[in-house]
Design brief:
Number of strands: 17
Oligomer: single chain
CATH superfamily of the largest domain: HUPs
CATH class of the largest domain: Alpha Beta
Shape: elongated
Structural class: alpha/beta
Number of helices: 15
Radius of gyration: 26 Å
Strand content: 15-25%
Strand order of the largest sheet: 5-4-3-11-12
Largest sheet: 5 strands, parallel
Length: 484
RNA sequence: GGCGCGGUCGCCAAGUGGUAAGGCAAAGGUCUGCAAAACCUUUAACGGCGGUUCGAUUCCGCCCCGCGCCUCCA
């Protein structure tokens, strides 16, 4: 399916094909995103998915849509309860640290804050109300104080993941990993009775804690309505998590729960799935500590279209870093270099072409590779035009504006990596120099060069280099600097 | 076993029934006190075997290889 002019097409897991975006509320797109479970630091695989949904929402906004996005934070689950108990602290206190880390991480990666970032433990009442609704319809049963959803009562079960649930009972894998008693192995817990010593809530439906799936249904519908435009998450969540969300929500409301399901493919590392046993499990902080920049990681994670598995490698990081450099160098050149007066209509046309191609790429199921190619094409053509002196002074602001527009989606052009890393307490250079110090040293070096004191000028160049500052002597005699 | 995804230059990665984007790397060049950086240019690719077709990397079949999901999972 080819996109018509201005149409945004997206791949919907439910139909397994691309469909045009058609929000329920004109001019506004409502998105629910499965956020992190804060039992530990999020890993880069998580951020692949979060960066995808960030690119998506940024593109919607560039297209003039209002975005209402809800992201949940799952701050109660088995691992959290277990870890908090082991640490001897209340779960709320245990998760605080990881929520804070998550917020810092998304800030470092320029992932925009969703309009609503909501915690599961702040919505117990909403979950209880939803469970009561399901109980009233006779879709649940109690067992050992826990409440289960009876899947046999929902005939569309499996429509998202296309899974054959009838085979699950005799499945090749173990079926019942839970210690709770269930009528049918396929049924899932809406509400779990407390085990001894565990944190629990005293509610109208009894003491206990919510199951994972009910959290998302309750919070999504509370903020976004019974039917949501877009629900995003990692591919692994399609079954059973999203399947269960559909069963609960549609049973409760009788309405379609989600119009478009968007699933981001997984990231693998050196050809293998991330796992702790293989020792290839990276958090963002691991990578920052190894010297990689936030912009490098963001670029790498967004450069591969979201429905393609991304093989995360050291080489990939180097390539991403250099690609970002090329874009930043281009903008720096546009801003610093002096061009002949006037404007070249050809340049204006060329920039408009890039703009259209960038947009078309993203409108085609968020094809970031296509969108990036449009930018790099422009960079090369404009650089060549500048070399040929066909690029004029009035063209520069137009080109800068185009790059800034592209960056409203990419968010990698502004060189604030050093600042972001320092904010996380990670020092990036051996000697930290203030911008004013750097500029003073450059001025001193320029003076030395003018008096042909190359010994002194090379000394300053080395000193700056040791502090992570790279100098670039340009053709017109000016000097640019940047962080390595 | 069931379901699904993918194999395009050295690496990453678009795309198409008829001249195969882009990035990184490499090579050459421009610039420079030197150097670096930057920029330009160039090179080079559709897993295998059949089939359909005037023509297949693109459609169909089989095979080989890699990966994912099948109630922890982004």
């Amino acid at each position: 399916m080819a996109a018509k002019l201005n149409e945004i097409i997206l791949h919907n897991t439910l139909s397994n094909r691309v469909e045009p975006l058609a929000p329920m509320h004109p001019g506004e797109v409502r998105i629910y995103t499965c956020g992190p479970t804060v039992y530990s630091f999020a890993h880069i695989g998580n951020f692949r998915t979060f960066i995808f949904q960030d690119v998506l929402r940024r593109f919607f906004r560039l297209r003039g849509f209002r975005v209402l996005q809800v992201m949940n934070i799952t701050d109660v689950d088995d691992r959290i309860i277990h870890n908090a108990a082991a640490a001897g602290v209340p779960i709320r206190e245990y998760t605080e640290k990881y929520i804070k880390a998550f917020l810092e991480d998304i800030d470092a990666l320029h992932i925009e804050m969703p309009e609503e970032l909501v915690r599961a433990t702040d919505h117990i009442d909403d979950m209880v109300a939803l469970i009561e609704k399901l109980q009233a319809k006779g879709l649940t049963y109690n067992s050992d104080g826990s409440i289960y959803f009876r899947i046999s009562k929902f005939h569309d079960y499996g429509k998202l993941s296309k899974i054959d649930v009838s085979g699950m009972q005799a499945g090749a894998r173990r079926v019942d990993v839970d210690q709770y008693e269930k009528d049918d192995a396929r049924d899932f817990a809406l509400w779990k009775s407390p085990k001894s010593g565990e944190h629990f809530w005293e509610t109208r439906i009894g003491a206990g804690r919510p199951g994972w799936h009910i959290e998302c249904s309750a919070m999504a519908m509370k903020y976004l309505g019974d039917t949501i435009d877009i629900h995003t998450g990692g591919v692994d969540l399609a079954f059973p998590h999203h399947e269960n969300e559909i069963a609960q929500s549609e049973s409760a409301t009788g309405q379609p729960f989600v119009r478009m399901w968007l699933h981001a493919e997984h990231l693998i590392i050196n050809g293998q799935k991330m796992s702790k046993s293989l020792g290839n499990f990276y958090t963002l902080r691991d990578l920052f500590a190894k010297g990689y920049k936030p912009s490098t990681i963001r670029f790498l994670l967004l450069s591969v279209p979201y429905r393609r598995q991304l093989n995360f490698t050291e080489d990939g990081l180097i390539q991403a870093k250099n690609s970002v450099e090329r874009l930043r160098n281009f903008v720096a050149r546009l801003q610093a270099e002096q061009f002949a007066a006037g404007s070249n209509p050809e340049m204006e046309k060329r920039i408009e072409k890039a703009d259209a191609e960038f947009d078309a790429g993203l409108a085609d199921d968020v094809n970031t590779a296509r969108a990036l190619a449009a930018i790099f094409d422009l960079v090369r053509d404009v650089n060549a035009a500048m070399d040929r002196h066909e690029f004029l002074q009035q063209d520069a602001p137009r080109a800068v504006a185009a790059m800034e527009k592209f960056d409203s989606v990419l968010a990698v052009l502004v060189d604030d990596d050093d600042q972001k890393l320092r904010g996380l307490g990670i020092a990036t250079s051996k000697v930290q120099l203030a911008v004013s110090q750097i500029e003073a040293l450059i001025e001193e070096r320029n003076a030395a060069r003018r008096s042909r004191d190359f010994k002194r000028s090379d000394e300053i160049r080395r000193q700056l280099s040791d502090s992570g500052i790279l100098l670039e002597d340009t053709k017109d005699g000016s000097v640019r600097w940047k962080y390595k």
